[in-house]
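Sequence, please.
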């Protein structure tokens, strides 16, 4: 595929038509802004259109309860302090190692450390609604906390996982239809764990750039990087706001120009049931840890979706055959059955162990 900057310029100049997104409360610099309450009645087709054919970016105001976010932030800060005390240095995909504080697999670490907080945090309608609109059911949530410290430099403009994490020589080996497929296997998201005025460096975006097909090959080229640096948009967020975007939108974390603000975000990478998530998560451990908290929660469906494996394959069909349909039960099916029948925690633990054993090769 040929990469021509003029073609990208034409694509991003299309603009965002308010008539196409009647439930959006605002459009800022071409980016759609929804109120969390309005999102509950927004048709999935509108959200899908926004991510695929529109700007590719959706901001949800007040998506998460600030009190719950603050409790999670306390746990994340303690994890970071423990990592630093142990001398750990976390790498970064698109920034200098050590410039930021990172928690990899923050989803599992929060579940084990603070199960009740995990359930409150991931019992979230906005996350579930946008994830299902883009990926359908059975999605997999992973989470990486990123803290950009004062003076922390921003990232270069890039696209994300899957193709976005490969060098150009490998990207060029994939046929054109895979370049179209990769973005629909992942939803990118970020939850603001602090107020993020522009000077703290919230994420920079190039709206509509997901529609430029050769973009995975283009982002390493200097003329495309210069264009991103000169034309990106950057929107402030408040604590509890969330942003979701197509992973093919060219984007990058901004530079924290403040002397004293540590900008914290929980970066959510939500994977299709049919794709490969970037991180390995021990979801059996997560489910076991949070199950008592799930039992006491009035509506745990969203938390179960974030925690458990929702797709039944791959498995060992000799030991885990499809007896009541075309597929055996998924891990999430088992957790939902346990909640419906009020199993004691030790029974769920043993059933999850048996379920895992049947799926082992």
């Amino acid at each position: 595929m040929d990469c021509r900057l003029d073609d990208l310029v034409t694509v991003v100049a299309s603009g965002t038509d308010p008539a196409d997104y009647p439930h959006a409360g605002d459009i800022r610099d071409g980016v759609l802004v929804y109120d969390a309450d309005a999102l509950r009645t927004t048709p999935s087709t509108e959200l899908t259109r926004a991510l695929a054919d529109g700007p590719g970016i959706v901001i949800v105001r007040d998506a998460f309860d600030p009190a719950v976010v603050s409790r999670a932030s306390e746990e994340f800060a303690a994890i970071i302090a423990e990592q630093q005390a142990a001398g750990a240095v976390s790498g970064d995909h698109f920034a200098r190692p050590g410039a930021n504080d990172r928690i990899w697999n923050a989803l599992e670490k929060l579940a084990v450390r603070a199960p009740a907080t995990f359930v409150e945090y991931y019992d979230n309608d906005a996350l579930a609604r946008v994830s299902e609109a883009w990926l359908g059911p059975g999605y997999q949530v992973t989470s990486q906390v990123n803290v950009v410290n004062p003076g922390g430099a921003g990232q270069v403009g890039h696209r994300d996982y899957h193709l976005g994490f490969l060098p150009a020589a490998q990207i060029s080996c994939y046929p054109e239809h895979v370049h179209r497929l990769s973005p629909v296997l992942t939803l990118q998201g970020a939850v603001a764990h602090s107020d993020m005025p522009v000077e703290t460096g919230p994420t920079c975006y190039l709206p509509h750039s997901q529609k430029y097909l050769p973009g995975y090959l283009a982002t390493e080229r200097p003329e495309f990087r210069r264009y991103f640096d000169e034309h990106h948009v950057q929107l402030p967020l408040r604590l509890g706001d969330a942003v979701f975007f197509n992973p093919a939108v060219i984007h990058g974390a901004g530079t924290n120009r403040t002397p004293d603000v540590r900008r914290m975000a929980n970066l959510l990478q939500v994977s299709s049931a049919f794709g490969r998530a970037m991180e390995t998560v021990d979801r059996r451990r997560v489910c076991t840890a949070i199950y008592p908290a799930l039992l006491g929660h009035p509506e745990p469906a969203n938390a179960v979706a974030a925690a458990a494996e929702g797709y039944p394959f791959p498995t060992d069909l000799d030991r885990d055959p499809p007896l009541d349909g075309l597929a055996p039960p998924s891990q999430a099916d088992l957790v939902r059955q346990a909640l419906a029948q009020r199993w004691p925690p030790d029974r769920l633990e043993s059933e999850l162990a048996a379920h895992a054993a049947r799926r082992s090769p």
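The chain has two domains: 5-271, 283-359.
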